[in-house]
Design brief:
The chain has two domains: about 240 residues, P-loop containing nucleotide triphosphate hydrolases (Rossmann fold, 3-Layer(aba) Sandwich), CATH 3.40.50.300; about 130 residues, Histidine kinase-like ATPase, C-terminal domain (Heat Shock Protein 90, 2-Layer Sandwich), CATH 3.30.565.10. The protein is built from 14 helices and 15 strands. A six-stranded mixed β-sheet has the order 6-7-8-3-9-10, with helices on both faces. A five-stranded antiparallel β-sheet has the order 11-12-13-15-14. A four-stranded antiparallel β-sheet has the order 2-1-4-5, covered by helices on one side.
Length: about 375
């Protein structure tokens, strides 16, 4: 349905897209992932020429839509877009936002446009908000309205540009649920997203973009479970983990707690588990305070393991630092309240060999 050949986009001397080549079949759901600045959103915006390509071709059903004489308005009706910032008309009600384009661009009678608008609002769960203004809606509700407005033009392709990035984490789920429902209906969709679990669940294929190109592509099981390129492996690991260097007794524990909370919200980790992780990391800092005073550096990693429904904390001990857990095991008379608290949170704590003779302490924390 869509064929892209050698797509290039420059902003002045900055080359954002460096020769993108791909084909997308009708009914495919493509998730586009990658680090910030790799060209994901630019690629999407070039597809319906919200950004003018600097070179290359884009074909829609065999017709080059980058050529002269193309009715770009007609193209955008077929290939519509949902933006991360909603872009609703603030002076119009929810229903008016949905009926404006069908009435003005297609000449749809008002009664027919409103009937279709209400049908779409019911589909996204917002029929009761039909006569509200955007300012009276939450972020998640605004994005669901934006999706319904896109559907009001009956597009053949929907482009989602990070549809949840502007939302509070508590509202992400409601928008993703609507997109999942659309995927089941056989619509062709391209979705730029940072929600890795969602991308894995909903996609027929995943594009990993890196330095302005599609660096790796394939079914979700391959890209997320067995990526072929080292850059893909690094990216997948990074989005599912947080890494910290502890090298001073003056660790900013509040910043650490805040980052862990955001990480847990992103992966829908239960609040109690997030609290346990914060408590665990705080106790680990206290446990090794003497070593931190000597400026010995520890590497701390918080990692989400969805398959096991587990969050794992790994502490890489500096050379020469012994694990207090093995000492406590050796002498049952040794009772340390901090160590006992850590054991209660992560009862399966164990050691793993690290690099250069170092030792890693692994703390598996089951989700509450």
């Amino acid at each position: 349905m869509i064929r892209v050949k050698g797509l290039v986009k420059n902003f002045g001397t900055l080359q954002v897209l460096r020769g993108v080549d791909t084909e997308i079949a009708k009914g495919e759901v493509i998730s586009i992932i990658g680090p910030s600045g790799c060209g994901k959103s630019t690629f999407l915006r070039c597809l319906n020429r919200l950004e003018e390509p600097s070179g290359g071709q884009i074909e829609l059903d065999g017709r080059d839509i980058t050529g002269p004489g193309v009715d770009i308005t007609a193209v955008r009706q077929r290939m519509n877009m949902v933006f991360q910032a909603f872009n609703l008309f603030s002076h119009l009600t929810v229903l008016e936002n949905l009926t404006l384009a069908p009435m003005q661009l297609r000449g749809t009678p008002k009664a027919q446009a409103e009937e279709r608008g209400m049908e779409l609002l019911r589909m996204v769960g917002l029929a009761e908000r039909a006569h509200y203004f955007p300012s009276e809606l939450s972020g998640g509700q605004k994005q669901r309205v934006a999706i319904a407005r896109c559907l009001a033009m009956d597009p053949e392709v929907i482009l989602f540009d990070e549809p949840t990035s502007a939302l509070d984490p508590t509202m992400v789920g409601e928008v993703l649920a609507v997109v999942r429902n659309l995927a089941k209906q056989g619509l062709t969709m391209l979705i730029v997203t940072h929600e890795m679990d969602f991308a894995r669940d909903v996609s027929s294929r995943v594009f990993f973009m890196h330095e302005g190109r599609i660096h790796e592509q394939g079914p979700p099981a391959q890209v997320f479970g067995a990526p072929q390129r080292p850059e893909t492996r690094t990216f997948i690991h990074r989005v599912r983990s947080r890494n910290y260097t502890l090298s001073s007794p003056d660790v900013d524990i509040y910043a650490l707690h805040g980052d862990i909370e955001v990480f847990c919200e992103k992966h829908l980790v239960p609040r109690q588990t997030a609290h346990d992780l914060q408590l665990l990391t705080e106790e680990l800092v206290l446990c090794f305070m003497e070593e931190l005073k000597q400026r010995k550096a520890f590497e701390l990693c918080v990692e989400y393991l969805e398959a096991k429904r587990e969050v794992r904390v790994t502490l890489d001990l500096p050379a020469g630092v012994e694990s207090p857990f093995s000492v406590a095991d050796a002498d049952p008379m040794v009772v340390d309240i901090g160590l006992q608290l850590i054991r209660n949170i992560a009862p399966g704590v164990h050691e793993e060999p690290g690099e250069d003779g170092r030792v890693k302490l692994v703390f598996p924390v089951r989700q509450s």
